[in-house]
Amino acid sequence: MWDGKSGCLNVSVAENRAVTDLVLSKLLALDGATPFTEDSIYYQDTRGMEGCRKAVARHLTKLAGTEKEVDHEKVIISAGCNAVLETLFSIICDPGDVVMVPSPYYATFKFDLGCRSGVLVSECSGIPKGDGGSPSDYYPTPEYLESTYQRILSSAGRPPKALLFTNPHNPVGIIYPPHVVAAMMDWSDSKGMHVVSDEIYGGSIFSPSSPPHVSLLAVSESKHGRVRDNHHVVYAMSKDFAASGLRVGAGVVGGGEVMEGARKVNDMCQVSSHTQLLVEGMLGDEGWVEGFRREQGRRVGVRYERVKEALGKGGVKWVEAQAGMFVWVDCRGLLREGETEEGLNERMVEHGVMMTPGGSMGMEGEGWFRCVFTAVDDEGFEVLIKRLERLGELRGEPEKGGNPLDGLIEFPARMRIKVVGPNDDGFVEDIKRAVGGVVDVEADKVGRRDKGKWTSVSFDIEVESEEVRKRIYEAIDKDERVKFKL
């Protein structure tokens, strides 16, 4: 959606394009130097190649903060974090079983668990506890979990099978303190449930003042002397190493029947030998990994500070992030009277920024959005900053003669102009004539959408200059029936 000039910036996908050069150069170097032996072209252990599992285990040991090294015999390598999740939950759950997830949460959990395994996700309501502006507002408590547990037990007639959470948190970008992780673990253990911690952002801590990430593995080991069989962690190369296209996920799976099941089910979503060798080489170069993490944290941290400054200029609030690659933006003040989050989202897209609406991530209350500020390259990021600085212009009722894209477009540009007015054929034809009097309008590039007493007329047109754009809006403004335009 980003064309370098007038397109909308898609900052809804959690990818890190701020470190592309670092990752690509390393992979290119490894690809030419990685030994590809005869054994590599044949079937491998369905859990993953031993060398890759050992490299992942060593890396996770450093991230997790465990005293004991993560056992590579409990590691599975699969085609992405979603494949690990599907494999794990297809083993510990039956179709129709319910998994509890504290909200807000990564929306695709529902698809990952339910598409083929038939597992249901039930969001835990009651978060945030306060206004939502503080990290601690999003900490789950045993009382909060118990309320959801009883609701599921009453409605489903059977208890939930597992608790699934993300730490560091997606979408809020906070890190759960050890006591919060311990409380969730202890509560789940008291119910005989499995606990699954998605730690895909475990190495993406960018703030020097952030607390360290403490894994479920470390919390479980600290209390029980080992990681219990019902405690599981999932990870991937997609976020920490900006390598979502490699499709490499990893799971540290509890022993016994769960691992035996994972060994069999994972056969259907193995990672190629070539890719596993690349991952082994990348993680095995511990000096490079340390340097990469420092530079990644620096680059992401610089972007985060600039995003905060831009939001502040626009009069928009946010929750202080500690990790990840996104910021949880409080856009409640931009909602117009009676406007839905969907309506605000449409206006934000017209403004040139596509974020993830909080409602799609189980957030209670409308007006929260996730902005992935690493989803665009350096050029796109500069445009994002300009648009975030002017986000506050979406506040309140629109004024005639103004437009949120003023000064943000490089011409010539292909533009989509939207005019809202009364649901009347005469109004639509008059607006078409007004715009057509300034620029050429192709009939198949004009759209109309009726909603109750209002209609929206959209034009997909080529605009040569800022002067021409202003003339178009001046022509539209002459019609007193226009409610607003974008």
UniProtKB/TrEMBL annotation:
Residues 43-388 form the Aminotransferase class I/classII large domain. One of its GO terms (biological process) is amino acid metabolic process. The keyword Transcription does not apply. Pfam families: Aminotran_1_2, DUF493. InterPro entries: Aminotransferase_I/II_large, Ethylene_sulfur-biosynth, PyrdxlP-dep_Trfase, PyrdxlP-dep_Trfase_major, PyrdxlP-dep_Trfase_small, UPF0250_YbeD-like, YbeD-like_sf. Keywords: Pyridoxal phosphate. One of its GO terms (molecular function) is pyridoxal phosphate binding. This is Aminotransferase class I/classII large domain-containing protein. It comes from Triparma retinervis.
